[in-house]
What we know:
Helix content is 46%, strand content 15%. By secondary structure, the protein is of the alpha/beta class. The two termini are 27 Å apart.
Amino acid sequence: MNPPGLLLLQLGTPxxxxxxxxxxxxxxxxxxPMVVDLPRxxxxxxxxxxxxxxxxxxxARLYQKIWCDNGLSPLLxxxxxxxxxxxxxxxxxxxxxxxxxxxxxxxxxxxxxFQRLGVERLLVLPxxxxxxxxxxxxxxxxxxxxxxxxxxxxxxxxIPPFHDHPGYIQSLAQRIHTQGASTPxxxxxxxxxxxxxxxxxxxxxxxxxxxxxxxLLAQALSLKKDRWTLAYQSxxxxxxxxxxxxxxxxxxxxxxxxxxxxxxxxGFVADCLETLEEIAISGQKxxxxxxxxxxxxxxCLNDFPPWIAALTRIIEDELKGWMPDSNPTSL
Length: 331
Protein backbone atom coordinates (compact mmCIF):
# COMPACT_ATOMS: atom_id res chain seq x y z
CA MET A 1 0.00 0.00 0.00
CA ASN A 2 1.27 3.49 -0.85
CA PRO A 3 2.28 5.85 1.96
CA PRO A 4 -0.57 7.88 3.49
CA GLY A 5 -1.05 11.45 2.37
CA LEU A 6 -0.96 14.47 4.67
CA LEU A 7 -2.76 17.63 3.57
CA LEU A 8 -2.01 20.83 5.48
CA LEU A 9 -4.96 23.12 4.86
CA GLN A 10 -4.66 26.91 5.12
CA LEU A 11 -7.19 29.64 4.42
CA GLY A 12 -5.72 31.45 1.42
CA THR A 13 -3.90 34.44 0.04
CA PRO A 14 -3.68 36.59 -3.07
CA UNK A 15 -0.94 35.65 -5.54
CA UNK A 16 0.40 39.20 -5.65
CA UNK A 17 -0.10 42.43 -3.64
CA UNK A 18 -1.95 44.17 -6.48
CA UNK A 19 -5.56 45.10 -7.02
CA UNK A 20 -6.48 42.40 -9.61
CA UNK A 21 -4.98 39.60 -7.49
CA UNK A 22 -6.65 40.81 -4.31
CA UNK A 23 -9.98 41.20 -6.14
CA UNK A 24 -9.77 37.62 -7.42
CA UNK A 25 -8.97 36.32 -3.95
CA UNK A 26 -11.69 38.31 -2.19
CA UNK A 27 -14.28 37.31 -4.80
CA UNK A 28 -13.67 33.64 -4.05
CA UNK A 29 -13.40 34.11 -0.29
CA UNK A 30 -16.41 36.37 0.21
CA UNK A 31 -18.61 34.35 -2.15
CA UNK A 32 -18.41 31.36 0.19
CA PRO A 33 -21.80 31.06 1.97
CA MET A 34 -20.03 29.55 4.98
CA VAL A 35 -18.06 32.80 5.36
CA VAL A 36 -20.84 35.29 4.59
CA ASP A 37 -24.13 33.53 5.19
CA LEU A 38 -26.46 36.27 4.00
CA PRO A 39 -29.04 35.35 1.34
CA ARG A 40 -27.30 35.16 -2.05
CA UNK A 41 -29.82 37.42 -3.79
CA UNK A 42 -28.99 40.12 -1.25
CA UNK A 43 -25.25 39.59 -0.71
CA UNK A 44 -23.85 38.95 -4.20
CA UNK A 45 -25.00 42.28 -5.71
CA UNK A 46 -23.37 44.07 -2.76
CA UNK A 47 -20.21 42.02 -3.12
CA UNK A 48 -19.80 42.52 -6.87
CA UNK A 49 -21.39 45.94 -7.11
CA UNK A 50 -19.74 47.67 -4.17
CA UNK A 51 -17.14 45.72 -2.18
CA UNK A 52 -15.10 44.28 -5.06
CA UNK A 53 -15.01 47.71 -6.68
CA UNK A 54 -13.45 49.45 -3.65
CA UNK A 55 -11.94 47.06 -1.11
CA UNK A 56 -9.29 45.32 -3.32
CA UNK A 57 -7.36 48.54 -3.98
CA UNK A 58 -7.27 49.38 -0.27
CA UNK A 59 -6.32 45.84 0.72
CA ALA A 60 -3.60 45.69 -1.95
CA ARG A 61 -1.90 48.71 -0.37
CA LEU A 62 -1.94 46.94 2.98
CA TYR A 63 -0.52 43.74 1.50
CA GLN A 64 2.31 45.75 -0.06
CA LYS A 65 3.44 46.81 3.42
CA ILE A 66 4.04 43.23 4.58
CA TRP A 67 4.83 41.27 1.38
CA CYS A 68 7.96 39.09 1.56
CA ASP A 69 11.09 39.84 -0.44
CA ASN A 70 10.87 36.38 -2.05
CA GLY A 71 7.67 37.42 -3.84
CA LEU A 72 5.32 35.43 -1.61
CA SER A 73 2.74 36.56 0.88
CA PRO A 74 3.81 35.96 4.50
CA LEU A 75 1.01 33.42 4.95
CA LEU A 76 2.18 31.36 1.98
CA UNK A 77 5.86 31.72 2.87
CA UNK A 78 5.44 30.57 6.46
CA UNK A 79 2.99 27.80 5.51
CA UNK A 80 5.42 26.46 2.91
CA UNK A 81 8.27 26.55 5.42
CA UNK A 82 6.16 24.67 7.95
CA UNK A 83 5.08 22.11 5.34
CA UNK A 84 8.72 21.55 4.31
CA UNK A 85 9.71 20.94 7.94
CA UNK A 86 6.89 18.43 8.44
CA UNK A 87 7.74 16.69 5.15
CA UNK A 88 11.39 16.47 6.19
CA UNK A 89 10.45 14.92 9.51
CA UNK A 90 8.31 12.16 8.02
CA UNK A 91 10.31 11.65 4.84
CA UNK A 92 9.10 8.99 2.44
CA UNK A 93 6.71 7.48 5.00
CA UNK A 94 4.20 10.25 4.31
CA UNK A 95 3.27 12.21 1.19
CA UNK A 96 2.92 15.78 2.48
CA UNK A 97 1.33 18.71 0.64
CA UNK A 98 -0.01 22.20 1.39
CA UNK A 99 -3.24 23.60 -0.07
CA UNK A 100 -5.35 26.71 0.35
CA UNK A 101 -9.11 26.84 0.70
CA UNK A 102 -9.03 29.94 -1.52
CA UNK A 103 -6.26 30.69 -3.99
CA UNK A 104 -3.10 28.67 -4.54
CA UNK A 105 -1.88 26.01 -4.01
CA UNK A 106 -5.31 25.03 -5.27
CA UNK A 107 -7.18 22.54 -3.12
CA UNK A 108 -8.70 20.50 -5.94
CA UNK A 109 -5.41 20.32 -7.85
CA UNK A 110 -3.64 19.13 -4.70
CA UNK A 111 -6.24 16.43 -4.01
CA UNK A 112 -5.95 15.24 -7.60
CA UNK A 113 -2.19 15.08 -7.20
CA PHE A 114 -2.69 12.75 -4.23
CA GLN A 115 -4.94 10.67 -6.47
CA ARG A 116 -2.30 10.49 -9.22
CA LEU A 117 0.27 9.41 -6.64
CA GLY A 118 -1.97 6.53 -5.58
CA VAL A 119 -2.69 7.85 -2.09
CA GLU A 120 -5.43 5.66 -0.60
CA ARG A 121 -5.40 7.08 2.96
CA LEU A 122 -5.48 10.83 3.47
CA LEU A 123 -4.98 12.73 6.73
CA VAL A 124 -6.16 16.35 6.68
CA LEU A 125 -4.71 18.90 9.08
CA PRO A 126 -6.67 22.19 9.10
CA UNK A 127 -4.17 24.78 10.31
CA UNK A 128 -6.84 26.46 12.42
CA UNK A 129 -6.48 25.76 16.16
CA UNK A 130 -10.09 26.76 16.85
CA UNK A 131 -13.03 25.30 14.95
CA UNK A 132 -15.21 27.67 13.00
CA UNK A 133 -17.60 26.88 10.19
CA UNK A 134 -16.05 29.77 8.25
CA UNK A 135 -12.57 28.19 8.32
CA UNK A 136 -12.31 24.51 9.22
CA UNK A 137 -15.93 23.81 8.34
CA UNK A 138 -15.72 25.43 4.92
CA UNK A 139 -12.43 23.72 4.10
CA UNK A 140 -13.65 20.26 5.06
CA UNK A 141 -16.96 20.76 3.23
CA UNK A 142 -15.00 21.65 0.08
CA UNK A 143 -12.79 18.57 0.47
CA UNK A 144 -15.86 16.35 0.78
CA UNK A 145 -17.33 17.99 -2.31
CA UNK A 146 -14.19 17.37 -4.37
CA UNK A 147 -13.56 13.82 -3.13
CA UNK A 148 -17.17 12.83 -3.87
CA UNK A 149 -16.17 12.85 -7.56
CA UNK A 150 -13.14 10.59 -7.04
CA UNK A 151 -13.10 6.90 -7.94
CA UNK A 152 -12.25 5.45 -5.52
CA UNK A 153 -12.67 7.90 -2.66
CA UNK A 154 -9.66 7.65 -0.32
CA UNK A 155 -10.01 6.75 3.32
CA UNK A 156 -10.15 10.09 5.12
CA UNK A 157 -9.15 11.25 8.57
CA UNK A 158 -9.42 14.84 9.81
CA ILE A 159 -7.33 16.11 12.70
CA PRO A 160 -9.64 17.83 15.21
CA PRO A 161 -9.08 21.36 16.54
CA PHE A 162 -5.98 21.57 18.73
CA HIS A 163 -6.93 24.67 20.73
CA ASP A 164 -6.26 22.89 24.04
CA HIS A 165 -3.40 20.61 22.98
CA PRO A 166 -0.51 20.87 25.49
CA GLY A 167 2.08 21.08 22.72
CA TYR A 168 0.29 23.99 21.06
CA ILE A 169 -0.13 25.87 24.35
CA GLN A 170 3.47 25.31 25.39
CA SER A 171 4.69 26.41 21.95
CA LEU A 172 2.79 29.67 22.32
CA ALA A 173 4.22 30.22 25.81
CA GLN A 174 7.76 29.49 24.63
CA ARG A 175 7.29 31.80 21.65
CA ILE A 176 6.35 34.61 24.02
CA HIS A 177 9.30 33.88 26.31
CA THR A 178 11.83 33.81 23.45
CA GLN A 179 10.56 37.18 22.25
CA GLY A 180 11.34 38.69 25.63
CA ALA A 181 7.70 39.62 26.03
CA SER A 182 6.87 37.81 29.26
CA THR A 183 7.80 40.45 31.83
CA PRO A 184 5.25 40.52 34.70
CA UNK A 185 4.54 44.26 34.59
CA UNK A 186 3.09 44.10 31.08
CA UNK A 187 -0.52 43.49 30.15
CA UNK A 188 -1.28 40.76 27.61
CA UNK A 189 -3.87 41.03 24.87
CA UNK A 190 -4.82 37.70 23.27
CA UNK A 191 -6.37 38.72 19.97
CA UNK A 192 -8.34 36.16 17.94
CA UNK A 193 -10.01 36.62 14.57
CA UNK A 194 -13.59 37.78 14.93
CA UNK A 195 -16.78 35.94 14.01
CA UNK A 196 -20.35 37.21 13.49
CA UNK A 197 -22.61 36.38 16.41
CA UNK A 198 -25.05 34.74 14.02
CA UNK A 199 -22.58 31.88 13.54
CA UNK A 200 -22.23 31.47 17.29
CA UNK A 201 -25.99 31.42 17.87
CA UNK A 202 -26.24 28.52 15.43
CA UNK A 203 -23.82 26.49 17.53
CA UNK A 204 -20.34 27.37 16.30
CA UNK A 205 -17.94 26.47 19.17
CA UNK A 206 -15.35 29.06 18.12
CA UNK A 207 -15.61 31.48 21.09
CA UNK A 208 -15.50 28.59 23.55
CA UNK A 209 -12.35 27.26 21.89
CA UNK A 210 -10.74 30.72 21.96
CA UNK A 211 -11.58 31.19 25.64
CA UNK A 212 -10.04 27.81 26.47
CA UNK A 213 -6.81 28.70 24.67
CA UNK A 214 -6.61 32.07 26.42
CA UNK A 215 -7.15 30.51 29.85
CA LEU A 216 -4.57 27.77 29.27
CA LEU A 217 -2.03 30.20 27.84
CA ALA A 218 -2.50 32.57 30.79
CA GLN A 219 -1.90 29.61 33.14
CA ALA A 220 1.24 28.61 31.22
CA LEU A 221 2.53 32.18 31.58
CA SER A 222 1.48 32.36 35.27
CA LEU A 223 -0.62 35.45 34.56
CA LYS A 224 -3.14 36.74 37.06
CA LYS A 225 -6.66 37.51 35.83
CA ASP A 226 -6.05 41.25 35.71
CA ARG A 227 -2.93 40.89 33.55
CA TRP A 228 -4.57 39.63 30.38
CA THR A 229 -7.55 40.31 28.11
CA LEU A 230 -9.19 38.29 25.34
CA ALA A 231 -10.41 40.20 22.27
CA TYR A 232 -11.50 39.66 18.67
CA GLN A 233 -10.18 41.49 15.63
CA SER A 234 -10.90 41.92 11.89
CA UNK A 235 -14.58 42.87 11.92
CA UNK A 236 -16.25 43.11 8.54
CA UNK A 237 -19.65 44.42 7.56
CA UNK A 238 -22.50 45.65 9.75
CA UNK A 239 -23.43 42.43 11.56
CA UNK A 240 -22.92 42.09 15.29
CA UNK A 241 -19.60 40.36 15.99
CA UNK A 242 -17.90 38.76 18.97
CA UNK A 243 -16.63 41.27 21.49
CA UNK A 244 -14.64 42.95 22.90
CA UNK A 245 -13.14 44.35 19.73
CA UNK A 246 -9.34 44.49 19.53
CA UNK A 247 -9.23 47.87 17.76
CA UNK A 248 -11.47 49.41 20.40
CA UNK A 249 -9.32 48.06 23.23
CA UNK A 250 -6.11 49.35 21.67
CA UNK A 251 -7.60 52.84 21.77
CA UNK A 252 -9.06 52.59 25.29
CA UNK A 253 -6.58 50.53 27.33
CA UNK A 254 -4.13 53.44 27.81
CA UNK A 255 -6.96 55.48 29.37
CA UNK A 256 -7.32 52.69 31.95
CA UNK A 257 -3.64 52.89 32.87
CA UNK A 258 -2.46 50.00 30.69
CA UNK A 259 0.43 51.55 28.76
CA UNK A 260 2.78 48.55 28.34
CA UNK A 261 1.16 45.93 26.14
CA UNK A 262 2.12 42.58 24.66
CA UNK A 263 -0.17 41.35 21.87
CA UNK A 264 -0.39 37.68 20.91
CA UNK A 265 -2.57 36.25 18.12
CA UNK A 266 -3.02 32.57 19.09
CA GLY A 267 -5.62 31.86 16.41
CA PHE A 268 -3.12 32.38 13.59
CA VAL A 269 -0.34 29.79 13.28
CA ALA A 270 1.30 31.74 10.43
CA ASP A 271 1.79 35.49 10.20
CA CYS A 272 -0.43 37.19 7.65
CA LEU A 273 -2.13 40.49 6.85
CA GLU A 274 -4.25 40.31 10.00
CA THR A 275 -1.23 39.97 12.29
CA LEU A 276 1.53 41.90 10.53
CA GLU A 277 -0.45 44.89 9.28
CA GLU A 278 -3.63 45.02 11.34
CA ILE A 279 -1.87 44.40 14.68
CA ALA A 280 1.89 44.98 14.39
CA ILE A 281 1.62 48.14 12.26
CA SER A 282 -1.82 49.76 12.49
CA GLY A 283 -2.63 48.38 15.94
CA GLN A 284 0.63 49.60 17.40
CA LYS A 285 0.14 53.09 15.95
CA UNK A 286 -3.37 53.25 17.41
CA UNK A 287 -2.19 52.14 20.87
CA UNK A 288 0.69 54.63 20.98
CA UNK A 289 -1.48 57.44 19.57
CA UNK A 290 -3.94 57.02 22.44
CA UNK A 291 -1.28 57.16 25.14
CA UNK A 292 0.36 53.74 25.12
CA UNK A 293 4.04 53.63 26.02
CA UNK A 294 5.40 50.29 24.77
CA UNK A 295 3.79 47.81 22.38
CA UNK A 296 5.25 44.35 21.87
CA UNK A 297 3.86 42.16 19.08
CA UNK A 298 4.70 38.46 19.34
CA UNK A 299 5.08 36.81 15.91
CA CYS A 300 2.96 33.75 15.14
CA LEU A 301 4.31 30.25 15.60
CA ASN A 302 5.36 30.05 11.91
CA ASP A 303 8.31 27.58 11.80
CA PHE A 304 9.20 27.90 15.49
CA PRO A 305 10.99 24.58 16.34
CA PRO A 306 8.89 23.74 19.44
CA TRP A 307 5.76 24.25 17.33
CA ILE A 308 7.06 21.94 14.60
CA ALA A 309 7.81 19.32 17.26
CA ALA A 310 4.33 19.71 18.75
CA LEU A 311 2.66 19.49 15.35
CA THR A 312 4.54 16.32 14.42
CA ARG A 313 3.28 14.74 17.66
CA ILE A 314 -0.28 15.74 16.81
CA ILE A 315 0.10 14.19 13.35
CA GLU A 316 1.70 11.02 14.69
CA ASP A 317 -1.17 10.52 17.14
CA GLU A 318 -3.69 10.76 14.30
CA LEU A 319 -1.70 8.37 12.08
CA LYS A 320 -1.93 5.46 14.51
CA GLY A 321 -2.81 2.31 12.64
CA TRP A 322 -1.66 3.81 9.35
CA MET A 323 2.07 3.91 10.07
CA PRO A 324 4.49 1.17 11.22
CA ASP A 325 4.95 1.18 14.98
CA SER A 326 8.54 2.22 15.56
CA ASN A 327 8.39 1.06 19.22
CA PRO A 328 6.42 -2.20 19.26
CA THR A 329 5.49 -3.52 22.69
CA SER A 330 7.66 -6.43 23.74
CA LEU A 331 5.82 -9.69 24.34
